[in-house]
Amino acid sequence: MAHQVTLNHVYYTYGLQTPVAHEALHDVSFNVDQGDFVTIIGTTGSGKSTLIKLLNGLQLAQAGTVNVLGVELQAKTTAKALKQLRSQVGMVFQSPEQQLFADTVLQDVQFGPQNFGVSPKQAAIQAKQSLQQVGIAPELLERSPFELSGGQKRRVAIAGVLASQPRILVLDEPTVGLDGRGRRSILELLRKLNQEQQVTIIMITHEMDIVARYARRVVVMHHGQITQDTTPREFFQTTQNQFVLPGAVRVGRALQANGITLEQLPLTRQELVKTVLERLQKEDRA
């Protein structure tokens, strides 16, 4: 089966051939399959945002190849092919609520699918479905999006991307600025889309709890290169002090450091409790 996303030996430099040239991506290669849930992590300036902008042609690789859903993204890619691809690759950037513009919530959310050729009637249906998915009450649909709370604006903005029913969802720090309830709501929606509809998720995040709880893969970037592409459990087992580890991981590693053998490193509190109880039960039987 072909990969949904394939990057081969990709390079990208800002200010190319100028005195202020800065290489953002250096020889980056990786693949993403349908239904994957990939988190991309790394310090500021590591190339994360540049990487995701390549995935729907917002930027084009200066060397190497980028292929997404069978479309090779290059300077000669037609506008028609690019528009079709962007209907299938939904992009959610930091503070997406700043992109709201319409008179009502419903008009704002149905703009995306209409722009990609869906009839106004069908676009309204898809918009209402996506608004329901993100937890926006029906009575808010005719309200101005600018009258909503910050968390509601974020959910409306994400609904605007979901309304086009993308096969791949690319997100840059989607939970920044949300309270605990809003954060959990968005993350559980992404998990549901991923598990029930096989929507591929590619997410930049600095929150290690998200990596531990939701991701299947974690890609680590450093100075424009991918330095790790592994499972969250393997990553947390081996990573040093560059990242703030989730509490359950810290406790699990502390137990291991004190000579206590664990079948696997716990990533969440639930896993930690289960692991400790199983260990105690084994000792009781012994």
Automatic annotation (TrEMBL):
Ranges of residues in domain ABC transporter: 5-248
EC number(s) from the headed UniProt entry: 7.-.-.-
Pfam family for this entry, one: ABC_tran
Family matches, as Gene3D superfamilies: P-loop containing nucleotide triphosphate hydrolases
CDD domains reported for this sequence: ABC_cobalt_CbiO_domain1 (cd03225)
Record localization: Cell membrane
Record keywords: ATP-binding, Cell membrane, Membrane, Nucleotide-binding, Translocase, Transport
SUPFAM superfamilies: P-loop containing nucleoside triphosphate hydrolases
InterPro entries: AAA+_ATPase, ABC_transporter-like_ATP-bd, ABC_transporter-like_CS, ABC_transpr_CbiO/EcfA_su, ECF_ABC_transporter_ATP-bd, EcfA2, P-loop_NTPase
Membrane topology: Peripheral membrane protein
Free-text function comment from the UniProt entry: ATP-binding (A) component of a common energy-coupling factor (ECF) ABC-transporter complex.
The protein's assembly and partners: Forms a stable energy-coupling factor (ECF) transporter complex composed of 2 membrane-embedded substrate-binding proteins (S component), 2 ATP-binding proteins (A component) and 2 transmembrane proteins (T component).
Family listed: Belongs to the ABC transporter superfamily. Energy-coupling factor EcfA family.
Annotated protein name in UniProt: Energy-coupling factor transporter ATP-binding protein EcfA2
